[in-house]
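Workshop exercise sheet. Pairs work together: one partner reads the sequence aloud, the other fills in the structure field after running the prediction. Swap roles for the next sheet.
Pair: D.N. / O.F.
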Amino acid sequence: MKHSGTMVLAAAVLAAGLVAGCGKGGQQAPAATAGPAATAEAATKKITVCLLPKKKGVPYFTTCAKGAEEAARELGNVELIYDGPTDGAPEKAASMIEKWTLQGVDVIAVSPNDPEVLAAAMKKAREKGVHVITWDADGAAGTREFFVNQATAKDIGYALVDTMAKDLGEAAEGEVAIITATLTAANQNEWIKFMKERLPTYPKLTLVGVQPSNEDQKLAFQAAQDLMKAHPNLRGIFAISSVAFPGSAEAIKQAGMGGKVLVTGLSTPNDMRSYVNDGTVKSVILWNTVDLGYLTVRVADALTTGKLKSGDAMFDAGRLGQRLVAGDNVLLGHILVFTKENIAQFDF
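Structure field:
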C-alpha cells in the first residue's frame, strides 16, 4: 500500500463526536478468568479464524482480507479462512457459519448482510463454544461478543451529508437520493438513520428516495439512471456501498450529468480514482479497509487468548497501536476523505 497512515476527516465534515457505541448488536459473554500458565498456553495455541464478508469478490472485502492475512502472518498462531457467498446471499452465509461451527473453529468473524437471517446460526455457534464477532456491519442482539467497528454510524452518516453539502457549495439545494446495498443491511440502515438526522442542517436539500442495488454494480447504474429520469431537479446521489458508488458514478458520467448531479459515498480509492480524476466525483469517503481486516483478526486472536475482555477500555492492536473499546465495540476510529488532491497517495 502506498499510504498506510490515516487522514482524519476535517472537523468541518465530522461534526459528530468520534466515540459512541452503535447501540446495536449482541451482549458481551462473560469472560473466563485464566491463570498465568493458562494464558501463556493460549497465546501459543494455534487458532482458526474464519472471516466471512457480505459478498466475496468485491474489492472492498478483498482489501479487508489483505489486512486480515497480514495480521495472521504477524501473529503466527492464526490459521485464517476467508470465504463468503459470491452472490451475497445471506442464506449461504448462514450455511457457512453452520459448517464452521461443526468443524469446531475458534472464531467466526461475520459481516452480516442480513442480521436476522444469520442470527440463528451465529447464536448456535456461540452455544457450541465458538467465539463470534462482527466486523464492518453489526449483527442482531445476542449474536456476537464484540463488534469491530470502522467508525460510529453517526460519524459516517453525518460525514456523508456534510461532504455532499460541501461539494455542492453555495448550490447546496435541490433533491438528493440514496442508493444503498440492500434494504436489510443493518450498518447502512444505521447510516441512513443518521443521514436523515443530519439533513435538516441543510434545509434546502430534500431527500426524495432510498433505492437498493443488491450489491450489484449494474443495478446501481440502473437505479441512478432511474432516479435522474424521475427527478429532474436531482442534485445529488449518496451511493453508500462500495459497489453502488462506482455504478452510480458511471451512470452520471454516461448521461453527461457530471457537475450537474453530484455523487458521493463510500468505496475504495482504487475503484473511484478515474471518476475523481475526471471530475464526476469530488469526494470519496471511507476508512482504511486493510486496517479494518487487520484489526478484526487482531481482535479475534485477543478474544481467544484472553487479551481482550469485557470491560476493557483500550486494546493493543499491533501496528495500529491502541484502539478504543467503547462498550462492546472495538473502534478503528478513522474516516478518510479522498479527493483529486490526495487520492494518488492511496492504493487499496
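Discussion prompt: The two ends are 7 Å apart (CA to CA). What would you look at next?
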